[in-house]
Amino acid sequence: MVSKVSRTEVRQEKHRRLRRHINGTAERPRLSVFRSNNHMYAQIIDDTVGKTLVSASTLQKDVKAELEKTNDVAAAAYLGTVIGKRAVEAGIKAVVFDRGGFIYQGKIQALADAAREAGLEF
Length: 122
Description:
Strand order of the largest sheet: 3-2-1-4
Radius of gyration: 15 Å
Number of helices: 4
Shape: globular
Largest sheet: 4 strands, mixed
Distance between the termini: 45 Å
CATH topology: Nucleotidyltransferase, domain 5
Oligomer: single chain
Order of helices and strands: HEEEHHEH
CATH architecture: 2-Layer Sandwich
CATH class: Alpha Beta
Number of strands: 4
Number of domains: 1
Helix content: 25-40%
Structural class: alpha+beta
């Protein structure tokens, strides 16, 4: 019998492959994105010390209050502007983008474009 690997396991394997090449440093931390069915999460991480420097998600009250839905492209774009503004306030200008094994289109692309417009370079 042929067994099919779940989409989550496929995505996690893609993410592991990406992480072999992508690494966040103090000068250029990693912007990590995770998308669930209902929400999106973004973190800026310094992998040398294993510390999250800035984070934002659609679960946070101030972000959720601005959104009609938390799982569409508009919500992803708003989250990108929020993470970009918080990063610039924290003194972070350049990051490495980690798409988390997700395809770079739709919500992931909207978040990345909005973060670039907010002042992040990647």
